[in-house]
Specification:
This protein is an all-alpha fold. The protein is built from four helices and no strands. The longest helix is centred in the middle third of the chain and has 15 residues. It is globular. It starts with a helix and ends with a helix.
């Protein structure tokens, strides 16, 4: 996962969410078809894709998918 576009593709392919790059900045309550189970699945997928653990406490505080992406790709 090297870009926002890769992240959006991952959301579509792995979680079956019909989101665009414009949607990832929205609050979770505004993301089409979003539910809390998606967040746990996303954490697992991101850890697999990046090969690094994510701090669940930080992910739970993230206001958007974009913020989760930034946490997953932070060095």
């Amino acid at each position: 996962m090297n870009s926002i576009d890769d992240f959006v593709a991952l959301l579509r392919d792995e979680l079956a969410l019909s989101v665009t790059a414009d949607d990832i900045g929205l609050g979770f309550d505004a993301v089409p078809s979003w539910d809390s189970v998606h967040l746990l699945s996303l954490c697992t997928i991101l850890e697999r894709e990046t090969g690094r653990p994510l701090a669940l406490a930080e992910v739970l505080e993230a206001p958007s998918l974009e913020a989760v992406y930034r946490l997953a790709t932070a060095s």
